[in-house]
């Protein structure tokens, strides 16, 4: 039977007997693909290709560790996919070269540039880890899970801080106006509202640090980490940010050992080369028949000595360790641009539910503050409230009166 083998070199194929074991598959890979058995690590988990160092020793990558297990007992049938990482280097035969024109034909400058553009993996991210506030992360995934059933995509800008070690901490998620489908997320950005979000964050010593989005149930059944559409959107936002530690996080459903599903968070950075190529206009957008795990370039590039225009999206991804923490802000007020929309009536309910807390803690919710910014002076009042929240000082009576009066009509 035929087994598809996906590695850092792309997709290749080997043929083994229908009753073959893992060990026999390894020998077939060694003979066909020129990768020594001693250097091979195989798994059915595609995350193997993005794991580094000690991460490859995780239990999730030991599913093919028993070399005497038959491939059929592992669920591998004709045409099945396995993932391979290996140490060292190997020679990959390039495609046959067909000369064009006469010997000595002059090359254009575009030809020369294209032949010098090599797509290479970036080993280390600038962002060493991404930690999400638990309440903010739960609010985001609960809405997608319970209200949208992971049927359409949803996204949001992550706001937080980064320290000198490149550790990014996300404290809240702003969800702009948007429309999601099974494979696309259209952001209909309200730049005035986004400006208010930036001002609130700046008053708390925070900034935009990345973008988070969901993958749908239909996407989870496909063989890619990020689709070409997702790569382009992530590259656009990364390039716009001009922030070296900008991170991209995804949320998706994955099957578990009990036959159910779990919500899973992953974090990446796009490689510097990916962002650079996007800025220079190399990505081709309209390729309806292209496999979504590939991105098409406007010119030829070189990958492992092969000339091509179709790049495996995994070449552009750098895995980032993902963590969680308990931040200083609450996340119980209705989130902007969702159904039902946040309102002044929700403000009254929120203040009532938290009446036993100090006033500064009652309003320490980004989504509440974003709604209040529509009624207060965003350049004077909002920064003063942010100063109170950051210092955990008392909120002046005048502001308390204004906030209470906004919800008093209900």
TrEMBL record:
Stored PROSITE patterns: MPN
MPN domain mapped to chain residues: 129-270
- InterPro entries annotated for this entry? MPN (IPR037518), Npl4 (IPR016563), NPL4_C (IPR007717), Npl4_Ub-like_dom (IPR024682), Ubiquitin-like_domsf (IPR029071)
Q: Name one Pfam family in it.
A: UN_NPL4
Q: Of which family is this protein a member? A: Belongs to the NPL4 family.
Any idea what this protein is called?
A: MPN domain-containing protein
Species annotation: Sphagnum troendelagicum
Lineage summary: Eukaryota, Viridiplantae, Streptophyta, Embryophyta, Bryophyta
